[in-house]
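The authors assume throughout that readers already know how a fold can be written as C-alpha cells. A single example would do more here than another paragraph of explanation. An entry of this sort, consisting of the sequence and the corresponding C-alpha cells, reads as follows:
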Amino acid sequence: MGRMGGRAAMIAAALMVVACGDDDDGSMGGVDAGRVDASMSLDAATPFDAGDELDAQIDDDDASTVADASSDDAATDDDASTDDASTSDAGTDAYVPTDDAGLTDSARAILALRASSGALASPQYLDTVQITYVLPPFGDDPGGVFVQHELLGPAIFLALDPTTLGDTPVRGAYASFSATETGIVDGQHRVTAIVPGSFQSGDTPVPGFLAEPQDVTAIDVPAELDDLESELTRNRVSVVSDYVDCGLDHWCADITTAGVPTASPATYRFRAVQSVIEAYGLQRRCYQEIELTPLWRFDAQAQTSAWSPDDFADIACPLVRVIGAVALDTTTVAVVFDAPLDPATVAAADFTVTGATVSSVVVSGYVATLTTSAMARGSMHTVSVTGVQDVLGIDITASASAELVVPPATNRPNGAGQIVITEIMVNPSGATETGREWIELANPSTSEPRVLTGCVLRDAAATHTLGALTIPANGRVTLASGADPGFAETYVYSGITLGNSGDSVVIECDGVEIDRVDYDGDFQSRDGYSLSLDPDLRTAFHDDATTSWCTSIAAYAAMDHGTPGAANEECR
C-alpha cells in the first residue's frame, strides 16, 4: 500500500501540524492566500483526533463537539477483530489490508470499499468521515462528495448527486452513511450506491485537515497515485503547456512541481473547468497554488484539479498583454487583453490612440471599450496602454499596443476583429452530415452593420465567395452548407465540407483576414454538438484559444445541439 506501512507515526506527526496551523505566507499577490474558505466558519477551538470517532448520530445542536471517547467504546475501538456492527468489516465482502490495523475503523472501512467493486454482500457503514469537497456535476464528471477520515487518507468519492442524498452535505462537516455498491471508473474508486436515507451530515464545519491539507508539492504524485487518489491536497504547480480538451467542460495542461520537475503529460496534469481558467486568465501558463481539492485521477494520470475560483490560494502569471484592438465605428475602440482587468485600476488616461483623444473607458472582463474623438473612415491608428492591472493585481507589459483600422463608409469589414466567428457545427449527428454543417458570425459593433457581400468564406481546402449578406449592428447570421440544417439559416454556402477532427474557418474581405479559427482535436468537438465561443470572450482575438470554446448543450433539432442565430451559452 505504499505510504501506509508507517502511517501511525505519520498521522500523529500530521495531526500536530493541524493543531499548530499554518504560518506559511506564500502570497504572490492577487488571490487570497488564506488556507480555509472564510465561508466555512471553522471553529478553531474544536479539537480533531484521528484516533477517535464522533458518534454516528451527529449532534446538530453542537456539531463541533467531539464525543467523549470513554462514552462510546465502539467508536474508539480500532481493533480489526471488534464485533460491533458499526465497524469497518461488518457485513462486507471487501478485503481489509492487515498492515493497516493502526488506522481508525472509518479509515479501514474506506480501504475496504476501495478494495471492492460491485454490489457488497451487506452494507458497509462509514462512521463520521469528514466531507472534504462537495462536487456539483460538471460535464462528464458526476456530482458527488469526497470523504476522508485521516489527514493522510485513505479517501473515497461518493459518486451520487449531492442534491439527492437527503441531508445536505456540508464541506468540513462529519457525515455517516452505509454503502451498498462500489465501482472503479477510469481508475477512480467510487461508492456508487448507499442505503436510501442513510446519509447523515452535520451542518457545521469542524477543523481537521481542511485547516492544513496534505501538501503533495514535493511528492512524486504519479508514483503515489494509488494511495493519494481522492485525498484532500495542496499542490504548487507550474503550468508548462497550453490547455487541451480532457473531458466535457474540462481542460488539462502539463505541469511541473518540486516532486515532479519534468513534465509527464501521460501521468500528471492540472485539470480545470473553463470558468476557472477564464476567471484568472490561466491560459497564460501560470504558477498556481491549489489547495483544499481532492486529487482526481484518469486511469494512470494524476490530475490536480480546480472546479471553482475559490480553489486557489495563490497565482502568479506573466504580465498582462494587449492581444488586439478593433474600431467598432468612428468613435469606439475595443481593446482586448489576455487577462480579465480590474476595473478599479483602469482610467481613460491609461489609453492613447494616435490621431484621436480618449474621453472614457468601460471595462468588461477581458475588453476595455474606449470612447474617442472622431476618426476618419479607413484611417489607421495605434492604441497604447499603461498602468492597468488584471484581477490578480498583475501589471501590464511595458510596451502594450495594437494596430487598428476604422471601417469604411460602406461598412465592409476592413480590419481584424470587425466580424467574429462565434459558433461552428463541424460534426452534426448521424451518419449523414450533408447540408447540416453551419457557421455563426457575429457583429461586435452596436452602431453599424457589416456588409459581407463579395467577401470570402474558406476552410483549409476550399473557398466560397459570399453573395448578398449583411450582419446588422450587434447581430448574428448563420451560414449553412444546406437549406435544411434544422433551423432557419441566413445563408447557404457551397463547396466547403468541414473536417470533424480539424480544419480552418476563415472570413476574408478584399484580401484582409477578418477572423480565423483553426480547430483540432484539442477543441471540445462532440458528435451532434456545436463548438460554442464563450460570450465573455466574444472577440476575434480570443477565438484562437481552445479554452475560449466549449460544447453547446441547448438542442435545436432532434439530435443536434447549439444556439444558431441566438446568444451563446456561458461555458462552465
Summary: Residues 1-99 have pLDDT under 50 and may be disordered. The radius of gyration is 28 Å.
